[in-house]
């Protein structure tokens, strides 16, 4: 398979166990190539950023 043909057409996702649904908040600042999660813990919250790279969309990321 020629991976250069499909580059720039992917996306991101994050899976977690349903038992921690109440601890996971998906932030609205994400987009189709960025997911931002806040995970509540007993100590400090964890911010998880998942970014699809490389991207051929040069201008949308600057918005």
Question: Can you give a write-up of this model?
Answer:
The protein has 63 residues and is mainly β. Strand 2 (34-39) and strand 3 form a beta hairpin. The chain is built from no helices and 3 strands. A 3-stranded antiparallel β-sheet has the order 1-2-3, with no helix packed on it. It starts with 23 loop residues before the first strand and ends in a 12-residue tail after the last strand. The protein has strands spanning 24-26, 34-39, 46-51.
**Would you count the extended β strands for me?**
3
Q: Average pLDDT value?
A: 78
Spatial order of the strands forming the largest sheet: 1-2-3
Look at the helices and sheets and give the structural class: mainly beta
InterPro entries: Endo/exonu/phosph_ase_sf
Short synopsis of the structure:
With 63 residues, this protein is mainly beta.
What is the topological layout?
Blueprint: E1 24-26, E2 34-39, E3 46-51
Antiparallel strand pairs: 1-2, 2-3
InterPro entries: Endo/exonu/phosph_ase_sf
């Amino acid at each position: 398979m020629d991976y250069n043909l499909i580059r720039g057409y992917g996306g991101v996702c994050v899976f977690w166990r349903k038992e921690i649904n109440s601890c996971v908040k998906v932030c609205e600042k994400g987009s189709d190539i960025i997911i931002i999660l806040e995970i509540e813990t007993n100590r400090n919250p964890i911010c998880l950023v998942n970014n699809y790279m490389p991207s051929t969309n040069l201008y949308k990321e600057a918005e």
